[in-house]
Amino acid sequence: MTRVEHATTSSRIGLILIVLATLVLAAAPAWADRLTLRLLAEVFTFLTLASLWNLLAGYAGLVSVGQQAYVGLGGYLLFALTTFGGVHPIAAILLAGPLAALVSIPVASLIFRLRGAYFAIGTWVVAEVFRLLASQLSALGGGSGISLPAPIILAIAPTRSLREFEIYWLALGLTVIVLAALFILLRSRHGLALTAIRDNEVAAQSGGIDVGRLKFVVYLLTAGGTGMIGSLIFLMKLRISPDTAFSVNDWTAFVIFITVIGGVGRIEGPVVGTVIFFVLRQTLADLGSMYLIMMGAVAIGVMLCAPKGLWGLVAERYGWQALPLQRKLVISAET
Amino acid sequence: MTVWLNIILQGVLIGGLYAMFAAGLSLIFGVMRLVNIAHGDLIVLAAYLALVVTQTIGIDPLVSLLLVVPLMALIGYALQRGLLNFTLGDDILPPLLVTFGLSIIIQNGLLELFTADSRKLITGPIEVQTVQIAEGIWIGALPLIQFLVAIAVIAGLQTLFYKSALGRAFRATSDDQSVAQLMGLDTRHVFGMAMALSLAVVGVAGVFLAIRANFDPAIGPARLIFGFEAVIIGGLGSLWGTLAGGVILGVSQAIGAQIDPGWQLLAGHLVFLAILAVRPEGLFPKVAG
Amino acid sequence: MSEPLLEVDSIDAFYGDFHALAGVSLRVGAGQVVAVIGANGAGKSTLLRSMSGLMHPRRGAIRFEGANISRMPAFDVVKAGVAMVPEGRRLFPSLSVEENLLIGAQSRRAGPWTLTRVYELFPVLAERRHLPATALSGGQQQMAAIGRALMANPTLLLCDEISLGLAPIILREIYARLSEIVREGISVIAVEQDIVQALRAASYVYCLQEGRVALQGRAAQLTRADISAAYFGV
After folding, report:
1. ipTM, 2 dp
2. Measured between alpha carbons, how far apart are the two ends of chain B, in Å?
3. How far apart are CA B169 and CA B157, in angstroms?
4. CATH match for A2-331 among 1.10.3470, 1.10.1220, 2.60.40, 3.30.70
5. Is C51 in contact with C82 (CB distance < 8 Å)?
6. Number of residue pairs across A and B with CB atoms under 8 Å?
7. Using the beta-carbon criterion (under 8 Å), do C74 and B178 form an inter-chain contact?
8. How far is B166 from chain A (nearest CA, A)?
9. Residue B273: closest CA among chain A residues belongs to which residue?
């Protein structure tokens, strides 16, 4: 009799730690000050963006340097839905996900005609098109952007502290949901298919996996998740403009660096990468372009010397995993 | 009528510049299947090199080509052998991510060195000179020179690729790396030469960019995108196709700008997406992507 | 044999963890034809790849004209005088027939082999010199691959399964040409699955089985029974 075993000692410990951490973080409004809450919320958004990019590039093999298209789209959807649709901001955020996924369908049908690095640049072109189109939308501020009207801000909650708490819990909640969804996906047979695609696409195809369709679906899901987080980000910023919404530096460069340094292709990678990124940012203060140069150099170094990232190095060496995702065939003799 | 003819002519001429942006990109992809995300930023680097050279030595920007082009070729060889050769392999992630990191580093490095101020190189009277080619049709002398240089560059690359020993080495190495080594080709050196050639073309493109328009550290990615769009519109594997692609892009942008200034870039992107939709292999393809 | 031209001294070769060759030794003298036979997967191609510099042995040494070439990269090995006719011909598809021959001369070694001489040896190539290499038939491609290796003016030619996919009549013609080449003083190591042809052409034979030398000896002195036993590991 054979069965597939997912858990290991490290994953049991990991699961307990994750649950504990989530509980502590959920109680943060009680023990953290306003600045820390904002910082934590920012950490959550980057963690989610990086995890989604990791799914796209590390599992489906689709390297995108244009995810800022959906971050910005989500932001503009928030502003449009609340200002013109009268939708409650939190509902708008939840709506932005499926809407962004919808928009990604025609986009995917176009750019999937490109392969490899040309696909990557294609995603960049799409983001540029979104940015240029946004600049033409005078109703949403055109090139200079627009601020979120006061009534909509008040709709979240009557007092500022309550608003901060709600946004914080929304950020934490969305992160938990996205990561949980990722875990379920990777644990399912589609997750197995994805690892097959990552290892050898041709072999996966001949093994009966519909590679094209799976990639398409993953692209859609990632776009939806990214759109949702994008609208949350701009709810936190309270102001949007084409350049901030579709910024390559903020939404792609940092995200890619985080994932690469942490470890592409493993669910724990973005977590490690996000922690390192923010520790560095807080300790080194904002050095602006010097910081970007350093991150770029570190990312290059990691890619050349430790292509599986820092977590990848550790995980391979010690065989650790934080979540029960491995698939080990256990054959036991039972009568 | 003549207004539109002039517009289209402007578009054709700038298409030459776009083709030069694209030629280096296309060459590298053909030889080693590498797409250099930092390509646009290297064009901007060349522009700043021209700036430094013209300012310190006091020579005319067009003359600075004699220094900038060899310098960029050297940088290309060093970059390939020192960094990019180590990213080549079956995995698409390393070259993509390393060149992306390089792009960010170059942009921010230039920002630190030169600030975000817009610059432009002045060449003198030739900048405003125009040539009348027909009744009511005038074109700038500089854009015309630049277009002719673009044609010369592409013709030169074609000749080198198909008629020279180096070109033979490029084609053999891109066909089959192992067997190329069995023939006595040090593939590390061949790739270095390919990148040197690519950046030499980038050097020409960068100098002309610097003369023609305002530049600052952030405009690299847009140049990469124009080059990339020219390659895709024209079709992979064909340098003359890339010229056609550049011209189509330039004309689309010119027409778009005439309709509404804010539509200049968008028009180009939309034509690119349209071609991707109806003829993804490009207009004059030679190889499959 | 006096000083051998090429000496493989007890090499071990690995593909990752897979132990492809174990303690293999081999020698070729000047002007000699040596055959290496064995079943699929026995390690014949691995042996040639190690000799040509595409792979490096983990243990043991390879010496050519006295010099240790075990760690030399392939592009230096051909400059030293060892040229390979790869398995499956592997002509460059983007190059014409003539360009394929010309690239064989990349290593710029001095010697008698020029385009003219190669065309004399294989006249059918001269007729098709400007065609893309892929337009040739199997036999013609094999001739082109051999011609390409000769353009490097080697002292040792490594031939990897040149009989594969060729009609017997074509094969006989190619091996006839090969003996002409040997008469000029070039040594040959021929890896073959076609035992008959290999034994006819070679003076000395090695039989590999699962990465080891199972049998070796003068071609004239080995019996059918010996070879079958070694080939199949019975």
Report:
1. 0.91
2. 40
3. 14
4. 1.10.3470
5. yes
6. 121
7. yes
8. 26
9. A110
